[in-house]
Design a protein that fits this description.
282 residues, alpha/beta, seven-stranded mixed beta sheet, two-stranded antiparallel ribbon, 11 helices, elongated, binds guanosine-5',3'-tetraphosphate, GTP-binding
Amino acid sequence: MHFQWYPGHMTKAKRMMQENIKLIDLVIELTDARIPVSSRNPDIDDLGKNKARLILLNKADLAEEKWNDAWMEYFQAKGFSCVKVNSKKGGGVKSIHAVIQEACKEKIERDRKRGILNRPVRAMVVGIPNVGKSTFINALAGKACAKTGNKPGVTKGKQWIRLNRNVELLDTPGILWPKFEDQSVGMKLAFIGSIKDELLQRTELAAEFVKFMQRHYPGVLAEKYETSEEGEAYAVLEGIARSRHCLVRGNELDLEKASALLLDDFRDGRLGRLTLEYPDQI
Ligand code: G4P
């Protein structure tokens, strides 16, 4: 299978990021808790050097709790602040304010020594498409926070959201381009729906997903679809099609439909909380 992101999008995203990153003190990087490494673009480490860094395991509600904790330890051991969040429901979002202060304490101390008091920390949210950046910004900013951009004395064109006395957030998130060089990374991004399905052969993708489930979560597919999950991946897809009455032309099994159903069930959490990569394999 071949995955790609258009080079034009990548160049634009990179340019925007380079411009905006100059304005900020703190990079808040969203990852998908189901694939915390594959949903990152490591180029951010270079772009964001000399900035305070906070990594969020977003969509933590869809990933296994024990792995969320293991991933938090992994990132903390690398020197990042790390918090697991569910931006959709707001879980974990409140605790971020304290973590931001902690992550920026060196900058605050530097300012204090120079006699600069109460200058708010400026932050930007970044992440690959669909990781939940807009949802997170809405959850963090809520309704109460007025935009502070486009006023005299404020950089023209940039909108800052004043979160509280101490923090301002750039209202447009930075888009990181996903990295597909590694096939297995592309595959995992496709599983979670980061790459649009029409770009791919859905049945082939679903078959790869079946193989992953057979290896890492035995029993889940059998129970959910009341079918055998043993043997060849396409046979399992046929079993799902049969069990869910995915048929074409009367009685032919519709594997395309069964594949879409399986992937949607996974993406919406209907197969339970699943993590697709593990710190000990990185
Ligand atoms: P982006 O700005 O990074 O591109 O992502 P965006 O906020 O648009 O979020 C992409 C999808 O991820 C949205 O779903 C959003 O609801 C969902 N999402 C964001 N954060 C979380 C989370 O913590 N947990 C879960 N379960 N989902 C999250 P959508 O299908 O586009 O819309 P809808 O289903 O919310 O209507």
